[in-house]
Amino acid sequence: MSMSSLAQEVAKRRTFAIISHPDAGKTTITEKVLLHGHLIQRAGTVKGRKSGQHAKSDWMEMEKERGISVTTSVMQFPYHDKLVNLLDTPGHEDFSEDTYRTLTAVDSCLMVIDAAKGVEERTIKLMEVTRLRDTPIITFMNKLDRDIRDPIELMDEVENVLKIRCAPITWPIGEGKNFKGVYNLMTDTVTLYETGKGAVIQDGKQIVGLDSPELDIAIGDYAVDLRDEIDLVRGASNEFNLAAFLSGELTPVYWGTALGNFGVDHMLDGLTAWAPSPQSRATEHRVVEPNESGFTGFVFKIQANMDPNHRDRVAFMRIVSGCYEKGMKLQHVRLGKEVRIADAVTFVAGDREQVDQAWAGDIIGLHNHGTIQIGDTFTTGEALKFTGIPNFAPELFRRIQLKDPLKIKQLQKGLMQLSEEGAVQVFRPLRNNDLIVGAVGILQFDVVVHRLRSEYKVEAIYEPVNVATARWIQARDNKVLEQFKQKAYDNLALDGAENLTYIAPTMVNLQLAQERHPDVAFLKTREN
Ligand code: G4P
After folding, report:
1. Most informative mutation of 19, 20, 21, 28 for ligand 1 (most atoms within 8 A of CB)
2. Which residues are annotated as a binding site?
3. Binding site feature residues for GTP
4. Which of 50, 212, 239, 483 has minimal CB crowding within 10 Å?
């Protein structure tokens, strides 16, 4: 493969994820994006909640029951001359850890806001995460077919609460029952809204020119109001600026209704035009650029039993540089081992397909037989380690017990695999045979018991355990570490990857331990 074709492939890719508060419309907009990407022919096929079409595993049964999205998938589709990768993020706040890591694998984000509600709490948290890497943000104000809040007030709220400047690209005309369409400030074009066309791609009647008499005929008095309002908006808001967008300081704002499939294409036009192509990523030693010919990638997610027919685990890898070709040999850097990758998969609207080639910016799925962990780096030889893909110290703990004690092997195996995935964390105290499950969000506990039953055939129950928090332990000096191990033996445990962890019954206990052992690091996050 020549360098120029590599550069071309990289340049046409856009890899993004959607951030939003539950119920703002992420699932609906995902569906409409797939419609525009021609991955589905009619909207109404992706949302399994009602149709049941997506009941691919017991795991997803649970997702349906609870009405939340707990699986991450990757969807690739062409749009105009670009190739878009959309990474789905788990919707529930309990899975913030998974979501966090997914956001390390994208180059831009779409922020969906319910325009009747404005900036909500989960969006604030997710924006904090995108700030760590200054990820460019595109904004979609959703549900314009309902009565919404004042548009100017909504943009003010985004600016004040989320600390990002807003540049309206489109502007709404009316709202709720009287939603007429949007005016594009950059192209001076009105696109008219029609109800009842949410399931298909619409032609969208357009009128060029704010002063066009056609507009008065089409929307009557709304045209007069719109002219006044646009004057005001132009004076009071920011103009779009590409550099400010790329550095995460300014967001282009679109208005529409995901349900009515209106405005989603405008947003996609902006995303494909302005969002960055695959970006460089930092390693411990140097920064890797996407156009480097050597292949590099990192694993940001592991998921078990995605498809009951395959009964396996899949490691999701973001390609950072170069090109994957079927059958190529890669260095599994942490293990120092060469592996041949013959059967990587991609996920086109939920169905697995074999990939022959994939490029920087793409996500591929590797079959994992227990040797791949979150954060692992793969390369064509160079000993690199990508940084910034952390595990978080859990905040909730339970002792897990078997109903049938003979099944301890299956329980251990199940828990180890689930912890490898990052679905939950497992701690084994040094002083006894307890198995302690640690989670960041409470829902993870239910998920674990559910999956242990359906995938590993073990019935497990929880008991309270006297653990308030956990910290990973590191010390520069081996002697210091050994002394610490003796002194703190009763509070030490090994996590799923055999890392030494301090489990504290109270926060005060943790504080005292830290004061007593100043040479030991108590870490809240861990990178493999
Ligand atoms: P989420 O993934 O962000 O949680 O949101 P989701 O797309 O599931 O949307 C949440 C609810 O908001 C859904 O209604 C959905 O139909 C509705 N919705 C999404 N976009 C729009 C829009 O542009 N206008 C209006 N009016 N509603 C919108 P639901 O009744 O909770 O779910 P369902 O019964 O339709 O499945």
Report:
1. 28
2. 20-27, 88-92, 142-145
3. 20-27, 88-92, 142-145
4. 50
Q: Which residue has the tokens 């509070």?
A: 491
**Nearest ligand 1 atom, CA 30:** 7
Element (H, E) at 266: helix 264-274
Q: From CA 162, how far away is CA 124, in angstroms rounded? A: 6
Pairing outcome for strands 328-332 and 323-325:
unpaired
Q: Which of 363, 339, 171, 162 is nearest to 251 (CA)?
A: 162
* 178: nearest Cα among 148, 202, 136: 148
Q: Of the candidates 372, 371, 449, 374, which has an alpha carbon nearest to the alpha carbon of residue 98?
A: 374
Q: How far out from the chain centre does Cα 356 lie?
A: 25
User: What is the C-alpha separation between 137 and 119, in angstroms, rounded?
Assistant: 14
- For ligand 1, atom 10: residue with the closest CA: 23
**What's the CA-to-centroid distance between 275 and ligand 1, angstroms?**
26
What's the predicted TM-score (pTM) here?
0.84
Triad 12, 17, 22: Cα angle to 5°: 155
Complex-level ipTM = 0.97
For ligand 1, atom 14: residue with the closest CA: 23
Q: What residues does ligand 1 touch, defined as CB less than 6 Å away?
A: 20, 22-28, 49-50, 91, 142-143, 145-146, 257-260
Q: CA angle, 34 as apex, 19 and 324 as ends, to 5°?
A: 85
Q: For every one of its 528 residues, what pLDDT tens digit does the chain have, with 9 covering 90 and above?
A: 566 799 999 999 999 999 999 899 998 998 899 889 877 666 554 444 433 333 333 344 544 443 333 344 788 888 999 999 999 876 555 556 778 889 999 999 999 999 999 999 989 988 988 998 999 999 999 999 999 999 999 999 999 999 999 999 999 999 999 999 999 999 999 999 998 888 888 888 999 999 999 999 999 999 999 999 999 999 989 999 999 999 999 999 999 999 999 999 999 999 999 999 999 999 999 999 999 999 999 999 887 655 555 556 788 999 999 999 989 999 999 999 999 988 887 765 445 566 788 999 999 989 877 788 889 999 999 999 999 887 778 889 999 999 888 899 999 999 988 888 777 899 999 999 999 999 877 778 888 898 899 889 999 999 999 999 999 999 999 999 999 999 999 999 999 889 999 999 999 999 999 999 999 999 988 876
For the chain, how big is the Rg over CA atoms in Å? Answer: 25
Cβ pair 169, 270 in contact under 8 A: yes
d(CA 448, ligand 1 centre) in Å? 28
Distance 127 CA to ligand 1 centre (A): 21
Measured CA to CA, the distance from residue 435 to residue 460 in angstroms comes to: 11
| Contact partners, residue 292, CB within 8 Å, separation at least 6 | 321, 322
